[in-house]
Design brief:
Layout (H helix, E strand, L loop, with lengths): L43 H24 L3 H14 L3 H26 L2 H18 L5 H24 L6 H28 L14 H21 L13 H22 L6 H23 L5 H29 L7 H20 L1 H18 L7 H26 L3 H30 L6 H35 L5
Helix pairs in contact: 1-4, 1-5, 1-6, 1-7, 3-5, 3-8, 3-14, 4-5, 4-7, 5-14, 6-10, 6-11, 6-13, 8-9, 8-14, 9-14, 10-13, 10-14, 10-15, 11-12, 11-13, 12-13, 12-15, 14-15
Length: 487
Amino acid sequence: MPNPPPPGFAAAEGPPAGAPPAGAPSVGVPTLGPPPAQVPPLGKAEHVRRWAAAPVALLSSSLALLCVVSLVDVVTQIDGLAGVDGRVVGWAGVGGLTTVAVAIVALLAGPRLGAGPPLGVGAAAAVFGLAIGRTVIDDAQLALALVVLGLGAGGLLGGAACMPVELPARWRSLTLAAYGVPFVAGPPVINWFALHVSAGDDLRLALHPPVWPLAVASALIVSWSALTLLLEPAKDRSTPGPTWDSAWTSLVVAAALSLVAVMLLGFDPGIRLFWLRPLIVVGCALAVLTFALTALTVPTSSARVGYVAAAVVVLCWPSCVGLMLVAADAGATQVSAGAVTAIAAAGVVGAVLGWWRPRAGVVVGLLTVAAAAAGAWVMPGRPWLMVAAAAPMAAGAGAALLGGLTSASRDLAGVRFVFAATVSALVVGSLVGVPVSWALGGTVPDLEAEARAAGRVLLGLTFALAVLAAAYSSTLLRQLSGGPARR
């Protein structure tokens, strides 16, 4: 028998009773690895940046729309502006090309630069451009104002479009909604103020808001931009990839051809009217065709739905509501502030519904736009009848636009492309609305009868585009419901 250990000494260490022998593999015994990396808590500055993202996006889009020359300012002052510089249409094309180029560069550089730099540059250029365009004296000031306003609009729209990508899902959705609402609620308000706030004997290119609201809005935008640059939040650095090359190329070509055509025709005021009208009609038809063909190059169905809905809404809605306001305001009773507020509120309600139910919002919204365009084709001269036609159109436009943007937000590469398409269609629509109505209607729509004739032309085109877009979007959404998006 083995001798027991001496007093004061412990037995030799060995495996406990029931333990596997030495060298045997251990089964089911967990091993402890390094502790998981803990996410550092968010600081107060980051909380402020996230909470302020949606209001800043709303202010940025609204300020950018002020930089886009409204239809009312064009149709009521086109003769005076042409007297200052006969090439005003050509310089408007340069300003529009600047807007699209700056916005697209900001979106493509967003994964590296973020939203801060374009927002800061856009806010500064917008303040400067609005001050220059408030009173136009000579041709040099007119050209400078159009270019600076284009720079401001492009920087603000491109920078605000980069904001949702830098935020978590919850804040991204809210910022996306705040970005899109001004595209629907802004045009009726801006056109109404342009009709009722007289510039006196002076000529203007843009409606200058009161100094203090403009100062506060620009200060908030610049502050958020500076805070983003200081914090350097995590960015989605993924590039669109080769599957998106054809879509981006097609979009750039479609926007560039339209705007270059405006420049070429505008810088040559000596073109005979016999040739100018058919050139404008053919050019506008080619522009719509190139934008339509661009939809076929979008690689995902969700982004294609967003592209079609956003392009149709921002291409048609601002010009249509502007002409409806001109025709109704020229009657015996002017359009009141309450009436235009009702139109804007209907657009906000429709946008909320489209943001809440994006798939239904796209199709139902586009069909509502088509039905409202058919009902408004008579171009009513009484304000309440105009509101009865414009409010449903605003609600449908809001539902389709926000539904399209929300559908595209499933893919970050897709939502960047849809944002770029939205800016491009907005600029092209604001530039070709008056020329195409002049080419088809016969005169510049500066009076009630001319505005009514031009409005019928644009409402008819809106009806056709909205019906086609609703049918195409319905087909794409059925594909999304039945399976993953396909090329």
